[in-house]
Design brief:
The complex is a heterodimer of chains A (343) and B (617).
Chain A lengths: L23 H15 L7 E5 L3 H4 L9 E4 L5 H11 L4 E7 H7 L1 H10 L3 E7 L2 E2 L5 E2 L8 E2 L3 E2 L7 H8 L3 E6 L3 H12 L4 E7 L15 H7 E3 L1 E6 L20 E5 L5 E6 L9 H13 L3 E8 L6 H4 L12 H4 L3 H10 L2
Helix pairs in contact in A: 1-7, 3-5, 4-5, 6-9
Chain B lengths: L21 E9 L4 H14 L4 E6 L8 E9 L12 E4 L5 H6 L6 E5 L12 E5 L1 H6 L5 H7 L2 H11 L3 H11 L4 H21 L18 E4 H11 L4 E4 L6 H9 L14 E4 L3 H13 L4 E5 L1 H17 L3 E7 L16 H5 L9 E3 L4 H18 L2 E7 H5 L1 E4 L17 H11 L29 E3 L13 H21 L4 E3 L10 E6 L3 H13 L4 E6 L1 E2 L3 H9 L2 E6 L5 H9 L7 E5 L8 H14 L1
Parallel strand pairs in B: 1-4, 4-5, 5-6, 8-9, 8-10, 10-11, 11-13, 12-13, 17-18, 17-20, 20-21
Antiparallel strand pairs in B: 1-3, 2-3, 7-14, 12-19, 16-18
Helix pairs in contact in B: 1-6, 5-7, 6-7, 8-9, 8-13, 10-11, 17-20
Classes of the chains: A alpha/beta (343), B alpha/beta (617).
């Protein structure tokens, strides 16, 4: 069935994936395709960006109608920064991996968030280097064993925690085996004006898929603890009247978060519940998850976005990339007047 | 520690007789003491008197306290290169006063701050001692500024001794303080006090003197980095990302200073300036912006270029326009951050792993910093590739006497960029559009930018192997086809980049036996050396190369001469190496002459080197 733009879901596909059959990344690509199709995303306004690695290959596998840029290892954030400032009409979807973001690109990741570059930043996190055949990444479990590289003695970096500390205003964790949640979070992220970080555990079926790894399918299927049931309500939705804040909210409470574009994220509490609007709670939750090896998924942190880097630059309304030459070059008189000042 | 001044060169350079409007002044002070203002006031004053003048700031990598020297050269003949000899020494720094006195040439002048401890044993120089504290105590200066204003004492003394009218010095002060009268008057009162003191107590005993002339009429005084900033702004730069590094920092500072040139009717900016977290990010940002359709640039120096290598290779291979200014300093490594060099040429030309050849523009003065500033942005879009502009600390941070800048004589060039309508027309005409297909046999494809509202506009940009449809490919044929096209593109660039400037010695244009090739900031020194040598009967033709890759003109010049001296301010003779590497000529007649001593090139050195080589023949 065509969407509002008259496009079928297949129109949002890309080239055929060359990743290993069963790779978690492919299911994320599929959810990007579905989310874009459902959200009536105009592909010509979308840019797909990535660094280097298995995950970074995936932008070729979705949204063939969008410009893509497969850049250098770990430094896609700077490319995204330049591109989105050059044209603030663009919708940026970026895919990175745990090596790309957690190691070589760690600095750029933090600075991207600090600048609040408006984009969806997906980390396809599998705890392992795939293309170089199975080294530990910086998000691998402490004490984990891998075939060729033995024991991992170092503690993992928690990318969601780093994102929150860095000032991100939309931070979610998901599991590529939980297609519905991935898709809903993607849609919510697309409604966010600012850097939306999605750390998606995405198993590597070739190098890191034994059940004792927290980045494996068996582990995820068995242990994923969704924090909420998530629903996205289109703009114009009228939210529930009474809202009660923690700590005393009742068991059935529904939290509704209004996004920048007017859509609502409706979170129906599961288990102990978590209010993503509370930064201290979000970091406490992540520390607890890390301590107890819990795969908690869902919207972990959200706040009304700060100004984006573009907002702070006091730029003209027309995207810089579309300025007329007359706006790009000052007049002859301006040069003559200047030259007199130097005489 | 002392700067390399050569005390006894006059004897070797017979023709040179310092005197009226033809001598150099060396001011020795402590870094960060505010003396730069005084030095620029002296330069501006001479400029206003119509005397060709140049200044070279030989400063340390330090915020405050280390010795700094500033040389000011007046030349009635219009020579603006640094002079190794400075006849007049203003010794205002305790740490260097002894050496500064020792370095004064025979017949020279010492103006010493009498408050310092020093001894003058020399009888072959004229000595003026100035009691700075005493003079300053006669004025009423705010405590916070008194130390800085004390530097105006030597300005006042020089005004008296060498004949700079006080009203001109005041005008120069006004210029220096952006026409603000309060600071200008405060500083002027120190000049007036010391001028009056000198008039009463100093008897003129030397022969150096300034007289008004008319050789700076219609000219401007400007730093190269300022010129480059203006060039970029008039070239339509719309995105700047940078990370501060000496000596390129002031280039972006000047862009910020001149931002009023680029405001829309609501006072909003038509250019974004982003301070990146490092040079890796700065170059990534300009590549992202260039890819998205902005006219983008960064400015950096050697260490930043090293960091930008990988990304530059991506932009080269993915064919993304961007401009990178390299205001060079001494390397390798941190090197000497505040000293000049032409040592990045070879590195820039082939920057990145794999087979790469970049376009490198080589401005030789402030006027060309402006011209290449706007042209580089055009060439980057026209050739769809990163374009380097290699300036250096000497051009970038020193004040240059220049012709006023010419307004760009061609409209902004976006190259083969297809917007929605042009893409539609292209598809109608050709029945297809593939990003890297060489439709015009010039190696340059047609590009679209993101955000083009057309269902066929998208393509995938990558640093990985690709065919001409921008699709990932590991096929050898695709790889080679791409490399051949990139080489063809480089050949196209030979006709697009600024060609060399040739000065033939004979009026008929017939080649002399000796040719000289040089580039960049060496230009004033080469011109001066060529004229001095001609006066001694050694005639030479001179070609200044203004860009890489070379054009055929370069080989024609080399072939036409019996021997060609390649003069550079680096250690390895990098331009000469590139010439040798690429020369299609069967014989080798290039002689590499390299200075690379951390200071701006001098005519004397070139003259000595060539004469020496000619004598050895």
């Amino acid at each position: 069935m065509p969407n509002a733009l008259g496009l079928e879901r297949t129109d949002y596909k890309g080239a055929t994936s060359t990743l290993c059959p069963g790779c978690g990344h492919d299911s994320i690509s599929n959810q990007i395709i579905s989310a874009a199709y459902d959200s009536d995303l105009p592909m010509w306004r979308v840019i797909k960006l990535s660094g280097i690695g298995c995950s970074s290959k995936t932008p070729a596998y979705f949204l063939k109608g969008s410009h893509g840029f497969n850049s250098v290892h770990g430094r896609m954030p700077s490319v995204a920064t330049g591109a989105t400032i050059a044209n603030h009409d663009l919708i940026a979807i970026a895919v990175s991996g745990d090596g790309d973001t957690g190691s070589i690109g760690f600095g750029q990741f933090k600075h991207l968030i600090r600048r609040n570059v408006p984009m969806v930043y997906i980390v396809e996190n599998n705890g392992v280097y795939g293309l170089t055949k199975g080294q530990f990444s910086a998000t691998a479990d402490e004490g984990q064993f891998l075939k060729y590289y033995g024991k991992n003695d170092l503690p993992p970096i928690d990318l969601c925690l780093e994102a929150i500390i860095g000032g991100a205003t939309f931070v979610a964790r998901s599991f590529s085996g939980d297609a519905k949640q991935v898709q809903t979070l993607l849609k919510a992220a697309l409604s966010h004006r600012g850097t939306a970080v999605l750390d998606i555990i995405s198993p590597c079926v070739t190098f890191n898929n034994s059940p004792d790894s927290t980045k494996s399918y068996p582990y995820g299927k068995e242990n994923e603890i969704p924090l909420h049931e998530i629903e996205l309500m289109a703009a114009g939705y009228v939210p529930a009247k009474q809202e009660i804040t923690i700590p005393e909210y009742p068991a059935e409470l529904v939290i509704e978060v209004e996004m920048h574009d007017g859509t609502f994220v409706r979170l129906k509490k599961l288990g102990e519940g978590h209010d993503p609007r509370n930064r201290a709670d979000a970091t406490t939750l992540l520390e607890k998850a890390s301590r107890e090896n819990l795969l908690l998924t869902g919207l972990i942190y959200y706040e009304e976005p700060r100004p984006t880097i573009g907002d702070t630059l006091s730029l003209t309304a027309t995207p810089l990339a579309r300025l007329e030459d007359s706006q790009l070059r000052p007049s002859r008189e301006a040069l003559d007047a200047l030259m007199k000042q130097y005489m | 520690m002392a700067i390399n001044v050569q005390p006894d060169v006059q004897t070797r350079w017979q023709r040179y007789q310092p005197g009226v409007n033809d001598f150099a002044l060396m001011v020795a002070t402590k870094n960060g003491s505010g003396s730069q203002t005084s030095n620029v006031v002296l330069i501006r004053s001479l400029f206003k008197m119509g005397i060709p003048v140049s200044g070279k700031n030989l400063f340390p990598s330090n915020i405050k306290g280390l010795p700094t020297w500033y040389t000011i050269r007046a030349s009635k003949d219009g020579y603006t290169a640094r002079r190794a000899t400075t006849e007049v020494a203003v010794a205002f720094n305790q740490d260097t006063v002894t050496e500064d006195i020792a370095n004064i040439p025979h017949g020279g002048v010492l103006i010493a701050n009498k408050d310092l401890k020093y001894r003058v044993d020399r009888t072959d120089i004229t000595v003026y001692e100035v009691p700075v504290k005493d003079i300053m105590s006669k004025g009423d200066f705010p405590k916070d500024f008194a130390d800085r204003i004390a530097n105006m004492v030597y300005v006042g003394v020089c005004c008296h001794l060498f004949g700079i009218p006080l009203d001109i010095a005041y005008e120069a002060l006004l210029d220096q303080f952006n026409r603000k009268e309060k600071p200008a008057r405060m500083n002027f009162s120190a000049i007036q006090l010391s001028y009056d003191w000198a008039k009463e107590y100093l008897e003129k005993r030397d022969s150096f003197h300034f007289e008004p002339m008319n050789k700076t009429q219609g000219k401007i005084l400007i730093e190269g980095n300022d010129a480059a900033a203006l060039g970029a702004l008039f070239g339509g730069v719309s995105f700047v990302a940078w990370y501060p590094i000496t000596p390129s920092t002031s280039l972006v500072d000047y862009i910020l200073n001149h931002l009023n040139l680029r405001k829309d009717s609501d006072g909003k900016n038509t250019v974004a300036v982003v301070q990146a977290e490092d040079e890796l990010a700065a170059v990534g940002m300009i590549i992202g912006a260039g890819w998205a359709g902005a006219r983008s640039m960064t400015a950096t120096s050697g260490p930043g270029i090293s960091l930008m290598a990988e990304f530059t290779g991506l932009a080269y291979f993915a064919e993304v326009p961007a401009v990178i200014w390299d205001v060079t300093r001494m390397g390798p490594s941190t090197g000497l951050p505040t000293r000049t060099s032409q040592g990045d040429l070879l590195f820039l030309y082939t920057l990145s792993h794999g087979d790469t050849r970049h376009i490198v523009l080589l401005p030789g003065n402030a006027e060309e910093c402006f011209e290449f500033g706007w042209k580089a942005l055009d060439i980057a879009e026209q050739m769809q590739t990163p374009v380097f502009v290699m300036s250096d600390l000497d051009i970038g941070m020193n004040v240059w006497l220049s012709n006023p800048f010419q307004y760009p004589d061609t409209p902004i060039n976006h190259g083969k960029t297809l917007n929605k309508e042009k893409l539609e027309a292209f598809l109608q005409e050709k029945g297809e559009w593939f990003r890297y297909r060489d439709y015009d046999a010039d190696g340059v494809g047609y590009r679209t930018v993101p955000g083009t509202e057309h269902p066929r506009a998208a393509y995938f940009t990558r640093g990985t192997g690709h065919n001409d449809m921008a699709v990932y490919s590991e096929r050898s044929e695709d790889w080679l086809q791409n490399m051949h096209r990139l080489r063809k593109k480089l050949d196209t660039a030979r006709h697009v980049v600024p060609g060399p400037v040739v000065q033939m010695s004979s009026e008929s244009g017939e080649a002399e036996a000796i040719g000289i090739i040089s580039f960049g900031s060496n230009d004033p020194a080469v011109h001066e050396a060529v004229e001095h040598m001609a006066a001694e009967g050694i005639t030479a033709d001179y070609m200044r190369i203004r860009a890489l890759p070379f054009s055929q003109q370069v080989w024609d010049f080399i072939e036409a001469h019996d021997r060609v001296y390649v003069i550079e301010n680096n250690f390895d003779g990098q331009l000469c190496q590139i010439l040798r590497m690429e020369s299609p000529l069967s014989r080798s007649n290039l002689v590499s002459l390299t200075l690379g001593d951390t200071l701006p090139m001098t005519a004397l050195w070139i003259h000595q080197q060539i004469v020496q080589h000619e004598e050895m023949r």
